[in-house]
Structures are given as structure tokens and as C-alpha cells.
Amino acid sequence: MKKKVTVWAPANIAFIKFWGKRDEELRLPMNSSISINLSNVFTITSVEFDENLTDDEVNLDGRVVSGKEKNRITKHLDRIRKMAGVNKRAKVESKNNFPAGTGMASSASGFAALSLAASSALEMRLGERELSILARVGSGSACRSIPDGWVEWQEAKTSNGSYAYSMYGLKHWGVCDVVAVVERAKKGVSSTEGHALVESSPFYKSRIARMKEKVRDIKKSIKEKNFSKFGEILEAEAINMHAVMMTSDPELIYWSPETLRIILKVKEWREGGLETYFTIDAGPNVHVICLERDAHKVEKLLRTIRGVRMVIVNRVAQGAHLV
């Protein structure tokens, strides 16, 4: 009997970033990372296995995909089929509520949703840790979109040791992420390609050497709800990661003039008494981190900045779940 399963999965934003892999095939990170799931940046994916299909059918955002894009999804479905001991092909329909491939973690929400939907459609009973490991092999940061709320993805030398878990739930702390979207087009260099260049940066080794200390410090600030310390660490971390990107060979410059304009505004607002901090993933869009009480004000201010195309207010969200 065919069973269609639909899953909602959030994108996530990391405050301590993942940039550089210990193992490319298993997507094991060189360092642990800390993130939250985003309430209003998400993917909805449906999966149905059908013994009458001769090939996987994949539809992303209303278009049938093929080639490299489809192959990555089929490869992940093959992993799940092997675990379940079946050969049936699948029909996959996936939709993002945000621009994919722009550095807003579309592969994270996408592979988290695919992992849960496909395994559930095959009636596999995977626990959260197993699901997180499975999602990680599809797309590293997808493992962080499986648990709820405030999440740590642990680095490890083995696949079974590297998974994400929930440090705190949704109600732990009223922090918001207000995303300023400045670019909808797909970025020129994917994160996967960027990860492969890290060793060429002269700053990479010193970055990795300090990661354990950074993870420890930001976890302390989250536990104590020390927003100033939290913001100071996450902002410096974003600049540090982009410094490695910009000094790789070839260099990766994901920022646009609009990115820099927002960075300078955030600093200006902070000096004026509105406590905000920025973080940026592998793309030009800027995540402005603030306390919940200031989210509406930050949203209004971002909408006045030239070049900002869309503003999305996020609270801390659930991880991937069936709908």
C-alpha cells in the first residue's frame, strides 16, 4: 500500500558556524556549532514510494528537476531505501517559502524534511539522533533542523558521534532573528564547493584552534541569557568565518554592497541604544539578532534600507515534524 507523508522542516541559523569538513562523504564537521531553528523560513516536503515508478520523480518549487540537483536527492533516497531494505522509487514534492540557494539554509531544511518524510513513508521508526545523523549525511547543517529550539551539532571523528540535539526548547529565551533578504538569485559558489577551499586560507587553522572556547562561551551566554555577550560572540564569529572565505584560493566574497550597508546600520542602531547584532551565512542576506521586544522595530528599520527586498521575522521554532 502506498503511503504519502508530508513534513515541515525549518531552516536554521548558526551562531557558531560550520565551515570546513573532517570527512566530505560523511559531512563530518571540523567543529561543533550552535544554532536556532527559524519559525518563518521553512520547507514542506511530501514523499510517496510507488512500486509502479521506474525512476524517482522530483519536483522542487513547482519545477521538475534533473541532473546534478536530482542526483543528490536520489542518492539520499538510496541511503534510506538501503536502510529499509526496499527498492521502490519515490515521488518527491518540495516547496520552500523563501529563495533557495541564497545562503538561507535551503539544503538544511530540505534534507531534514526529506529524511523524515522518506523514512516515515517507509514506516521506519528512527529516533531523533538517528534522523539527525541521516540528515547530516545528506547536507551537513540539515542535522540541526531535526531537533527543536536551541541546538548543538557535535563534532566527532565518527558518524555515530556527530549529531544534533536540543539544548533548550522554544520558550527558553525570547530571541528573534529578523532576516533581511537582499538577493533572491542563486549564489555563484555553493557551500559544498566553499567547504573544499578552507585549507587554502591562512586564517583557517587559527579559527579552528579557538572553536572549542567559542562554543563554551556562547553556551554559557545562552544559559545565563546574557544578550550582550551572546551578540558579541555571534557577530565576531560571522566576521571570522567570512574572513576565511575571503582569503581562500580562489576567494569567496558572498557579501554585496547591501550586505555591508545593513552591517553598518546594525552597528549604528546599537550605538544609539537598540541592541542588535548581525550574522551572515554563506550568502549576502543578513540575519539581525535582537530580543523579542525589539523585533517589530528592527523589522521596520530594515524595510527602510535601500536594497532590502524582503524582511522575515523569526522566533525560535520546532524542528522537523509530520504535518
Provide a short characterization of the protein structure.
With 323 residues, this protein is an alpha+beta fold. It has helices at 67-84, 106-121, 128-138, 191-195, 204-209, 211-224, 227-246, 257-271, 295-303, and strands at 4-16, 21-23, 28-29, 33-50, 57-60, 63-64, 89-96, 150-153, 164-168, 175-181, 277-279, 286-291, 310-314, 321-322. 35% of the residues lie in helices and 25% in strands.
Q: What can you see in these coordinates?
A:
By secondary structure, the protein is of the alpha+beta class. It has 2 domains: 4-170, Ribosomal Protein S5, domain 2; 175-314, GHMP kinase, C-terminal domain (Alpha-Beta Plaits, 2-Layer Sandwich). Helices cover 35% and strands 25% of the residues. The chain is built from 9 helices and 14 strands. The protein has helices spanning 67-84, 106-121, 128-138, 191-195, 204-209, 211-224, 227-246, 257-271, 295-303; strands at 4-16, 21-23, 28-29, 33-50, 57-60, 63-64, 89-96, 150-153, 164-168, 175-181, 277-279, 286-291, 310-314, 321-322. The strands form 3 sheets. Strands 1, 4, 5, 6, 7, 8, 9 and 14 form an 8-stranded mixed beta sheet that branches. Strands 11-12-10-13 form a 4-stranded antiparallel beta sheet. Helix 1 runs parallel beside helix 2 (106-121) and helix 2 (106-121) packs across helix 3. The longest helix is centred in the last third of the chain and has 20 residues, at 227-246. The model has no long low-confidence stretch (mean pLDDT 95).
